Amino acid sequence: MSPNNLQPRWGDWIPRLLLKLGLRFEDSREERQFVQQFTLDDLGRTRAAMVLGAFVYCSFSAMDWILSPDAWAVATAIRLGVALLVLLPATLLLARPDMQPWAEQIYLVYCVVPGCMLSVIYVFLRPSFDHGAAGMIVVILFVSTLLPLRVSSFGVFAVLTWTCFALFETVATHDNPSLALVNNAEIGAAYALSLYGVGAREFRARRQFRTRQELQVEKERSEATLTELRAAQAHLIQAEKLGALGQLVAGVAHEINTPIGLALTTSTAFDHNLADLRRTVNSGQVRRSDLIQGIERLSEGSALVFSNLMRAADLIQNFKQVATDQAAGDLRNFEVQDWLVELVSTLGPLLRRKGHQVRFTCADGIVLNSYPGALAQVVSNLALNAVIHAFPDGHAGKITIDVARLGDAQIRFVFRDDGKGIPMENLPRIFDPFFTTRRDKGSTGLGLHIVYNLVTSTLHGRIELESEENIGTKITIDIPRAIR
Predict the structure, then answer these.
(1) 110-114, 144-148, 284-288, 453-457 — which one is most confidently predicted on average?
(2) What residue stretches are annotated with the Histidine kinase domain (predicted)?
(3) What whole-number distance in Å separates Cα of residue 32 and Cα of residue 400?
(4) 234 vs 22, 222, 223, 433, CA distance in Å?
(5) Around Cβ 365, how many Cβ atoms within 10 Å?
(6) CB under 8 Å to 391, separation ≥6 — which residues?
(7) Which domains does the chain have, with CATH numbers?
């Protein structure tokens, strides 16, 4: 490759200058996108301005009549020909989607042709070039203010129309030849001012375009981050739910072990008593007292097995109902007292295993049309949260749940514990997602956040929390009796 090919080409100085002035993007794809947007922005208004421009261009034939009545017919014919053959067809072309990518070229033809033909009209008018600057300045102002031309396109328009004006002016007659210099000075000033205005408009448009592009990128990045955050939050919430369910399962399993173990022990004793009774009968020396004693032992064992198996069955049934409600999430009618008995019997094993007492009071006859699963999850999360945070270090405590009517349309749940309470500085953030003071112990900080969302969104209620250090915490939940 020759050294000359390594040098920048002479024709590249204009793009480099535009880059330095901020009137061109280095990325060609970005430049095409900007040009497309800039030239087609508010296309309806631009096309209306083009129709208006064609009308004004023709209406100046009245001025031609004043300047030169004998050449009026030729001037008017030229004006009408330009309007009918160039201006209006160019306006109509922009209505076609397949021609809109060529919008800037159409604008350039629209403004260059009438600008050049104006100089032709001035040749026929006598002595028109003495007043030609005014007509050219009107065209320049129209192009620079109402057509979305970039600096480069406006520069092409300026060079062609000014060259055409100067060329035809040299062959025209003048009453005052010195006016030619004045005309070109005025037109040059109009071009310079308009070029600055067009450049400033394009510069602002490019900055706005770049800002919108950056905002769009940031928006997409933020949306992607938010999607990832929501996915992570959903995963943690699911983990929190499974963790709570796991603790309930462990508590219920521990509680069921007792009646099942007693039933198993009793059934083993059954075998011994039955074997003794069988040997006594087989010996043929059956005393009435031995028979009565054997039957009494079997009866006592049978009653003990039955009561323990019934206790285990009740625990399993209650846990199954709570788990089904939480899994199904159905809206249904349920009696609060019976529902609360089942829930507390499910929570009881976990709480009692850690030495806590749980008590509840509920008025008779309270029926809700709501989501028992969501409500069970709220109470379960509050109980488990109290076990973890209110009674640390193995200290036993007391939890109470009071349910009462609040007018005719609402129910109030009051959940209390006599634990260590919540520090004042943490109260404003207590329902925030991921807020926890025991992250080092494995807490995710989602328990009360889940409670807040379930109460406000699913149960259509509200929740308030009050707490004092070393006294305890009180959580009040008001929910409607019927969700419609």
Answers:
(1) 110-114
(2) 251-483
(3) 70
(4) 46, 18, 16, 11
(5) 9
(6) 354, 356, 397, 417, 419, 420
(7) 15-223 (no CATH), 329-484 (3.30.565.10)
Average pLDDT over residues 367-388: 85
Rounded-to-integer distance, Cα 251 and Cα 258, Å:
12
For 263, the token pair is 């039933």
Split at pLDDT 50, 70, 90, the class of 156 is very high
Sheet with 462-468, edge to edge strand ranges? 357-362, 398-406, 410-417, 472-480, 462-468
Token pair in block for residue 313: 């069955």
Distances (CA, A) of 345 to 317, 318, 337, 380, 394: 10, 7, 12, 12, 22
- Are 53 and 62 a contacting pair, CB within 8 Å? no
* Residue 173 phi, psi dihedral angles, 5° rounding: -95, 150
Provide mean pLDDT across the span 365-391.
85
Rounded-to-integer distance, Cα 52 and Cα 50, Å: 5
Residue 251 predicted with pLDDT over 70: no
The 3-class secondary structure across 315-332, one letter per residue, is HHHHHHHHHHHHHHCCCE
Q: What residues does 482 pair with on adjacent strands?
A: 369
Is residue 11 scored above 80 in pLDDT? Answer: no
Length of the chain: 484
State both tokens at 30: 């970005």
* Mutual angle of helices 103-124 and 151-170, in 10-degree steps: 20
Q: What is the mean pLDDT of residues 140-149?
A: 90
Nearest alpha carbon to residue 152 among 206, 90, 89: 206
Q: What is the reported pLDDT for 4?
A: 46
Nearest to 111 by CA among 81, 93, 90: 90
The position carrying tokens 């969302």 is 453
Cα–Cα distance between 226 and 269 in angstroms, integer? 63
Three-class DSSP category at 256: helix
Per-residue pLDDT tens digits for 342-362 = 888 877 776 776 778 888 899
